[in-house]
Amino acid sequence: MLQATPVKLKADSVKLNYYNDRTKRDLSVLDGIDFSVNEGELVSIVGPSGCGKSTFLAAVDGLVSIDGGKILIDEREVKKPGPDRGLVFQQDSLFPWRTVQRNVAYGLEIQKLLSKEEIAARARKFVELVGLSGFEDSYPRELSGGMRQRVNIARALAVDPELLLLDEPFAALDAQTREFMQFELLRILDRAQKTGLFITHQIDEAIFLSNRVVVFSARPAKVKEIVEIDLPKERTLDLKHTPRFMEIFRHIWRLIEEESARMGLLRVH
Predict the structure, then answer these.
(1) Complete domains list, the chain, with CATH
(2) What are the φ/ψ torsions at residue 229 (nearest 5 degrees)?
(3) What pTM was estimated for this model as a whole?
């Protein structure tokens, strides 16, 4: 009998409200989010602009508190940020006065669990993993946008998180670099044997990267649908032009279109 894949992340009826100072009322942002991410998966979240995707990711990281339900990582409830999660932001957020090597080492230095020699060796390992060998002593200003994001991913992975959280990490890149970084992310996660939760506005990016795509409804967000991505494991650019890829794209777009209309972002005739 095949052993079931362990669940790495579970969102169980997650609710979150923001208090609006102007109206003096609570604004419901998340209204019962339910889904799970299995170990080794990359799952993407898409939905209408402003529906609460990044807020949910912040809740998974423990940066904001939820008002109902539970978020569990390896069956442990999330109460605050922790080393079991690595967060990659939209902007690379590197320290300009630190080299590539020392940016990657930063989280390890904060943890104070390893010697200087061990930190340096581990940082070099992840610089190599993201394909930046030879740039260890370069500064962020000397790197392209894609290279800076690779440093950002290496820094998040260096602390050995159980779950990598990515909040539109390629949004600031040009289209060509963005496609290249999609390939790089799949390669990096495969080699590092990590589980990922990815936020994006790009439907084709979500399909290309993911095992499953979670579609959020209009705010207050619920899970409108979870779409299984039944495409070959080996992803190539040609895959984006296949009939099945386009069929999945159109299906997800229709789901988002319906919810965008509910939010008044567009009119559906």
Answers:
(1) 1-82+164-169+197-269 (3.40.50.300), 85-160 (no CATH)
(2) -100, 95
(3) 0.90
